[in-house]
């Protein structure tokens, strides 16, 4: 039974898992949907009341009957590398590929339907509330007056993007940024603004959840550092235990969201409370594993290679 | 009018880093010039920064 990994060739974080699967003799097919059609070939038959399908790339072949699991890591847009790419060709190729994969009996990490929902930042905050996390007061608004009132109420507020930096050339970055009450909010009318009460923090926490296993890492924040992704602090990621209350909330969250994999970001305040910031359903883990030695890739490989059904609903503790 | 959030964006800056590994289609992972898997050299991966939380491709925003 084969593990299918949907990702780009340059994704070395996926390499960590491929190497583990090679080590255990688990068959793997690594495919970038951007290479379909072209380098990769697809065929699916729906006839005589039955279904079968095949994928091949670089001399490796996968039959849908032999598909154990699908890891949606960093897939390119279908047909992005085609000789004559177009939005229509991407749509057609997406239909063929994902329609075939959804027809197979395989485990997903993560299922695309759940992944799409899990990317929605406002929904994340709601699920985080329901799961028992501490969540900083937050507002999404296109009303300048409401944005101004939010900042007047909470004083120290950050602005951040819900969907990441805008694509395009030149490439932009959009770090979480502290703003004050003197800010001109008129441009809030031109696009939804995500404003959140700033949590003064002594550390960033990255908690990676694989199935029911949890790996938490902590990095001491620099003085006045707002966005843990930016700025050199001189500190490294270190493994830390998961507080019981947090562990329960994480399992509640991934159960509600239907996620087999998730990377949570928390801000640890000066009282030691972990404040939920976001949950990345496809978040990176390579940098954490390389710095802490936590066996996250091995756990991902184990989950993907397992024959048994997904136990998340009944197994609430890893 | 420029959306409010974009007032806090700035150019990422071009990276001149060249990854010292390439994809091996047969083994389905990236390898160093001497044939070893790139993941066998954690220090190198940390140095090139391709596993960091901001290293997502242009088609993804999962940090």
From TrEMBL, chain A:
Single GO BP term: SOS response
Entries under Pfam families matching the protein: ATPgraspMvdD
Span of domain MvdD-like pre-ATP grasp: 2-113
Protein name according to UniProt: MvdD-like pre-ATP grasp domain-containing protein
Database matches in InterPro entries: MvdD-like_ATPgrasp
Organism, scientific name: Streptomyces caeruleatus
Single Gene Ontology MF annotation: ribosomal S6-glutamic acid ligase activity
Cellular-component GO terms for this entry: cytoplasm
Gene3D superfamilies: ATP-grasp fold, B domain
SUPFAM superfamilies registered for this protein in UniProt: Glutathione synthetase ATP-binding domain-like (SSF56059)
Automatic annotation (TrEMBL), chain B:
Protein name: ATP-grasp-modified RiPP
InterPro entries: GRASP_targ, Rbsml_synth_pep_Strp
Superkingdom of source: Bacteria
Pfam families linked: Strep_pep
NCBIfam families cross-referenced by the UniProt entry: GRASP_targ
